[in-house]
Amino acid sequence: MFAWLCENPTGVDALTWQELPTPEPAAGQVRVAIRAASLNFPDLLIVQNKYQLKPPLPFVPGAEYAGVVEALGAGVTRLKVGQNVACLAGTGGFGTHVIAEAAMCLPLPDGFPHVDAAAFIMIYATSHHALVDRARLRAGETVLILGAAGGVGSSAIQIAKAVGARVIAAASTAEKCAFCKGLGADETIDYGSQDLREAIKGLTGGKGPDVIYDPVGGALAEPAFRAIAWRGRYLVVGFAAGQIPALPFNLALLKGASIVGVSWGGFARQEPEASAEALAELVRWYGEGRIKPVIDRTLPMAELKAAYARMGSREVKGKLVLVNP
């Protein structure tokens, strides 16, 4: 097998494409021939030693992938050789083969392509957990999505519309706002050229959004929170801007608002049955055509560094996916 190996987590440039022994699965594990793997923001942080997950060195990055089960370890009965699966394992995806825990593999129904499957679990599970579970978003409510043109943002637009909410998509350029409109957003805000707080007020008649979905953080957080509706729910999804904001607690008091943490990984570990039910609903929604990953582009697995560079340029709309021949 071949894989991108991180022997020293000092950044993308330190990754090397190496030939490694093809591993055999232990009990409860499977070997997956990787067909596609998506690039997510944590995949950048982990090779910079900035992510909360710090795997022992050396490791193969790539949190999310899809492929074909190639070999079974002892005791594995829920999967079979030749079965298509997707997995969100944290590491291992940027290569040709990987060993995965069988319990973490999502069996794919017929008609679910590997490229879509590799770009599915992280963004849709996060957005479903955020909007449906944590925020209890209801039909007719208004949700503001920051960073709406990115992977999680685009999934949040689709899930919010599936629930029946009104969506205001906020992004950094007019081009990205047009992209969000194409995904079903009802209104958009270009916070690269508009005052975010004033634009929110204008689009909500001064009431503010019932739910704010924030995977960006940084300087956008406080003006967005100041515009939130009474009893609003502010979803802390991530910090793509790099800066973790510090919100004045008096704002939550004055608005009767909630600051709600969103950690799908923690949810999946602490409440595995509820997480499995959410994933099953998402797979069903995919089959019904209600949600579908937006693929910015696919690149050969050997061009991982070019994919990282594109992600760093903030030009990505949707998801970047690496593919093996």
From TrEMBL:
GO terms for molecular function: oxidoreductase activity; zinc ion binding. It comes from the Bacteria. Residues 11-322 form the Enoyl reductase (ER) domain. PROSITE patterns: QOR_ZETA_CRYSTAL. SMART domains: PKS_ER (SM00829). InterPro entries: ADH-like_C, ADH-like_N, ER, GroES-like_sf, NAD(P)-bd_dom_sf, Quin_OxRdtase/zeta-crystal_CS, Zn-ADH-like_protein. This is NADPH:quinone oxidoreductase. It comes from Rhodoferax koreensis.
